[in-house]
Amino acid sequence: MKPKTFDVWVVIFLCLLPNWKFEAEAKNNFEMQTDNFTCSSEDVNSRILKEFRCGISKSAKRRTWHMEFMLKQPVAEHEFFMKIVLPRKSPLKDFVLLNVTTDGCQLLANRNQVPLMRLGRNVMERFSNFPKQCPFKSKTTYYIRGFRLDLNLLPAVDMETPVHTELSYRSKHHGLTWISGFLEARVQRLNEKKRPK
């Protein structure tokens, strides 16, 4: 490497270093607080779904959400849908952060996914007993319990905003969504007591 080229890279590195440090610090100043989590099903005749329930924990300080379901029959081929929206006040349009439908079996196996979905699947393993490959079995209670997103796992966040997330699992064979979840949350600044030293 020529001396001039090396000098240019050193200058670029020194300029980026403070910004990188600022972003790392900014991310630690925010947390995501869950306000509500509900779920529903199109399977009104219980062809696929035997039972389901969703909700949030009672603790207002460190609220988490949960979803549980049991299937009447195994489900192999299915689609997973997720949409993450940051609502904005009128006349601005809501900002859609993610809007994707993907092959559910590939998602379970964590293959060929959008990086954000792959990260989400990795995080979810700590909170769920979802299989790592298809099918979802019958007469097994699948769950996501105590889920709370750690913003330190994501790129730096430096804003306070509401966050609305919709997710659903749809059977390709039956052509219906056996469960959908609706999450209302907000990214907020940590108070001084919670702020890392």
Give a nutshell description of this structure.
Helices cover 21% and strands 39% of the residues. It has 197 residues and is α+β, with helices and mostly antiparallel strands.
What layout of secondary structure does this protein have?
Layout (H helix, E strand, L loop, with lengths): L2 H26 L1 E11 L8 E8 L8 E7 L6 E9 L8 E9 H6 L5 H10 L16 E7 L13 E11 L4 E14 L8
Antiparallel strand pairs: 1-8, 2-3, 3-6, 4-5, 4-7, 7-8
How does this structure look, described?
This protein has 197 residues and is of the alpha+beta class. The chain contains three helices and eight strands, in the order H-E-E-E-E-E-H-H-E-E-E. It has a five-stranded antiparallel β-sheet with strand order 1-8-7-4-5. A three-stranded antiparallel β-sheet has the order 2-3-6, with no helix packed on it. It starts with a helix and ends in an 8-residue tail after the last strand.
How would a textbook summarize the main sheet?
Answer: 5 strands, antiparallel
The proportion of residues forming helix, as a percent range, comes to 10-25%
Secondary structural class = alpha+beta
What is the number of domains? 1
Over all CA atoms, what is the radius of gyration?
20 Å
Please report which band the strand proportion falls in: under 5%, 5-15%, 15-25%, 25-35%, 35-45% or over 45%. 35-45%
Count, helices: 3
Return the CATH class: Mainly Beta
Quick one: how many beta strands?
8
User: What pattern of helices and strands is seen along the backbone?
Assistant: HEEEEEHHEEE
Low-confidence region ranges? 2-26
In round numbers, the mean pLDDT is: 81
CATH topology annotation? Ganglioside M2 Activator Protein, Chain: A
Q: What is the correct CATH architecture?
A: Distorted Sandwich
Terminal CA distance: 40 Å
Strand order of the largest sheet: 1-8-7-4-5
Assign an overall shape.
globular
Keywords: Signal
